């Protein structure tokens, strides 16, 4: 089982991270991932962003499946 | 209208040109059951920010997710309104002030379905598509666009 | 927006072309306070009537009264919605099925004003302008169009 | 005072009258004009139309001023 996840960052979040992709060991849940991200990139503490797992938006905490693609999504501003 | 619909690419590189819009309109002249078209165009504004004046917006997207979501929205709107056609185009990359970044086009037998569907589509596109606008300022800085 | 507005000619002879629409859109690229455009296009349908199939509509109008009324509607819509621009074009004479007979175009800083104003304009144009459509049939006869 | 009025007919009404303009002696009111028109053109009895005097739509009976332009307006069907 692939316990590595692909993290994709967009917009302002990619800017704060200084890149658009990370490969990390799966921290298990979205809340755990958020804590780990904020620890690694303190700028993210003040930033607003949500998650999508395998391209589906998630509004609350959820388990991250093995090998998942997890996206960090700041508020949308298309149009 | 019973044919299967598949996700289409809604993204175009750079600004959407008036010529593309004219071509898209002209393509509908053979569909003689259409009585009304409704079009919405988004244009980049030269907004004044505390940090400077907007000169362009640089759009990026989570493309795969955006296309899936656009397809889902498209299907929901087709199910709700009796439309003949629906087209959505959104820019990626740089679009200068005064240029067009969004083109939404609905057609139906009677005007109300086209107009209501177009309004609803624009609302959902702005709220639900993972697309981001980086507003480039004349001060060489940038701010991230916020949809209100 | 404070300049005095005078009645403009809204009538064009024959069909409204996609190129005219593209040109009208392109003319707005210098107005960098515009964020959204809403466009409605009326297209002639090949309706089936008991007496035959529609192949064209021949439009006539009480032009002087229509222009006065269009001006009144225009002023009322400008007073109600914060618009940057508003354009109305209606065909006179013959417009074939699949061709465009009405072009209504509103622009504003934010999209809602443009969309709401466009809807309202089309509604009022159809209800209040003294314009008549004679539907020409493939049987060489004709019937008078009825707006429902 | 010019007691002649110019009658302009449009759409289906012009078709039933067989022309788009008439010059008539002023019958005084719109109701009197309608009666005179229906007498002259019996086809108009079954037709629906309203009046405008000098380009202003009138929903009820009204006096016709000297020299007026009176329009016979079938239901509008623009757009």
Strand content of chain A: 25-35%
Rounded radius of gyration of chain A (Å): 12 Å
CATH homolog superfamily of chain B: Molybdopterin biosynthesis MoaE subunit
CA-CA gap between termini of chain B? 35 Å
Please state roughly what percent of the residues of chain B sit in beta strands, choosing from under 5%, 5-15%, 15-25%, 25-35%, 35-45% or over 45%.
35-45%
Helix content of chain A: 10-25%
Element pattern of chain B in H and E: EHEEEHEEHEE
Kindly report the name of the CATH homologous superfamily of chain A: Beta-grasp domain
Query: Which fold does the CATH topology of chain B refer to?
Result: Aldehyde Oxidoreductase, domain 3
Q: State the total count of DSSP E strands of chain A.
A: 5
In the predicted model, the low-confidence regions of chain B spanning at least 5 consecutive residues are: none
**pLDDT average of chain B, as an integer?**
96
Helix content of chain B: 25-40%
Chains forming the largest contact: B-C, 38 and 38 residues
What global shape of chain A is seen?
A: globular
Question: If helices are DSSP runs of H or I spanning 4 or more residues, what is the number of helices of chain B?
Answer: 3
- The N- and C-terminal alpha carbons of chain A lie at a distance of 40 Å
- Derived from helix and strand composition plus strand pairing, the structural class of chain A reads alpha+beta
């Amino acid at each position: 089982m692939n316990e590595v996840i692909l993290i994709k960052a967009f917009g302002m979040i990619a800017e704060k991270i200084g890149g658009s992709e990370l490969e990390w060991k799966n921290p298990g849940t979205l809340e755990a991932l958020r804590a780990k991200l904020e620890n690694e990139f303190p700028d993210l503490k003040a930033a607003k962003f949500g998650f999508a797992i395998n391209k589906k938006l998630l509004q609350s905490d959820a388990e991250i499946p093995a090998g998942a693609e997890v996206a960090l999504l700041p508020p949308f501003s298309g149009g | 209208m019973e044919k299967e619909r598949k996700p289409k690419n809604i993204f175009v590189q750079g600004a959407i040109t008036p010529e593309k819009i004219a071509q898209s309109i002209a393509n509908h002249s053979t569909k003689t059951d259409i009585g009304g078209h409704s079009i919405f165009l988004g244009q980049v504004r030269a907004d004044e920010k505390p940090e400077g004046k907007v000169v362009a917006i640089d759009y990026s997207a989570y493309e795969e997710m955006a296309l899936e979501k656009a397809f889902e929205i498209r299907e929901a709107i087709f199910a709700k309104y009796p439309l003949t056609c629906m087209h959505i185009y959104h820019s990626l990359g740089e679009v200068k002030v005064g240029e067009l970044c969004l083109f939404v086009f609905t057609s139906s037998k009677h005007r109300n379905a086209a107009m209501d569907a177009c309004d609803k589509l624009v609302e959902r596109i702005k709220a639900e598509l993972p697309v981001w606008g980086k507003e480039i300022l004349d001060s060489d800085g940038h701010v991230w666009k916020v949809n209100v």
